[in-house]
């Protein structure tokens, strides 16, 4: 066992320099050229412009592109990971890192996932993160404000989805009650029943784009388990309209004997959540480092 897990974050931390690490590698630059050609979007140029990085389509293209490119730059220099884990759209990127699809196949899957979600999402929708309250209180909040549970990050850390007006009202009341919450910069209520009509079309697309053999297991976001390849289409499509159980994914990662988690970035959200578990797992984001060499040295040192 190498003791290494690779974590792929979701939307929310896109920035103009998110491809800097990947661009240090010729292999990753070649992959990005193929990905941009397949999607019809120069993702490096899109990020560098610094505009419209948070629309659903652009965010999914950028997140998957940056994460798989960063792993492409690193994979031959690091020990084989025990598993891959992905948060929200990061789960699609995690399968990409594990070799499920070619760059051309990813160039079809990523924009089509975004398009299907855009087509079915209600207008003026969004998501709300809440910390410091338990599951029972979350149930009450969902009922009172007509919101739905979207992500379980911890016993007192949740993300809800719904109509923007309801989110704003809930946010004001929760803040007034002395609890932390944040309206997220997303316009799609992912992982809720609002998105259910996108599930079957995406499942069909995944079924007609069969996955190749994986280099390591990928945990399913809906249950924190590693699924056999024949169920990738089922679990990855279901994730669009079912809650992501990230806490279960982290628990499974620890149970598998992982001691080092490398988050591919952008951002550091997943690393922070692993730190908050209070277990003997060291987690850092690739964005903590200036160079690929620095990442490799840190991983090698921690695994030694």
Automatic annotation (TrEMBL):
EC number(s) from the headed UniProt entry: 2.3.1.39
Keyword Cytoplasm: no
Domain Malonyl-CoA:ACP transacylase (MAT): 7-286
Major enzyme class: transferase
Keywords, in A-Z order: Acyltransferase, Transferase
Stored Gene3D superfamilies: Malonyl-CoA ACP transacylase, ACP-binding, Malonyl-Coenzyme A Acyl Carrier Protein, domain 2
Source organism, top-level taxon: Bacteria
Matches recorded under SMART domains: PKS_AT (SM00827)
Keyword flag Metal-binding: no
One GO molecular-function entry: [acyl-carrier-protein] S-malonyltransferase activity
Protein name, as recorded: ACP S-malonyltransferase
């Amino acid at each position: 066992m190498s003791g290494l897990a690779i974590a792929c974050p979701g939307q929310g931390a896109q920035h103009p320099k998110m491809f800097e690490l990947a661009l240090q590698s010729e292999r990753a630059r070649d992959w990005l050229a193929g990905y941009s050609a397949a999607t019809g979007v120069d993702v490096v140029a899109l990020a560098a412009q610094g505009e419209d990085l948070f629309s659903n389509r652009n965010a999914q293209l950028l997140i998957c592109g940056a994460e798989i490119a960063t792993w492409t730059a690193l994979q031959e220099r690091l020990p084989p990971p025990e598993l891959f884990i992905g948060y929200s759209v990061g789960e699609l990127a995690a399968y990409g890192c594990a070799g499920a699809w070619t760059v051309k196949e990813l160039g079809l899957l990523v924009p089509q996932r975004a398009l299907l979600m855009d087509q079915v999402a209600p207008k003026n929708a969004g998501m709300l993160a809440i910390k410091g309250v338990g599951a029972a209180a979350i149930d009450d909040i969902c009922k009172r404000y007509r919101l739905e549970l979207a992500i379980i990050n911890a016993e007192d850390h949740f993300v809800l989805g719904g109509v923007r007006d309801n989110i704003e009202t809930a946010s004001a009341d929760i803040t007034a009650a002395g609890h932390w919450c944040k309206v997220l910069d997303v316009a799609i209520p992912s992982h809720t029943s609002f998105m259910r009509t996108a599930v079957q079309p995406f499942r069909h697309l995944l079924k007609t784009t069969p996955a190749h053999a994986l280099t390591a297991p990928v945990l399913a976001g809906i249950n924190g388990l590693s699924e056999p390849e024949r169920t990738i289409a089922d679990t990855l499509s279901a994730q669009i309209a079912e809650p992501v159980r990230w806490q279960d994914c982290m628990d499974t990662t620890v149970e598998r004997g992982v001691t080092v988690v490398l988050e591919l970035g952008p951002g550091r959200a997943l690393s922070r959540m692993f730190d908050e578990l209070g277990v003997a797992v060291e987690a850092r984001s690739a964005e903590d480092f200036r160079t690929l060499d620095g990442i490799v040295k840190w991983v090698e040192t921690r695994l030694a």
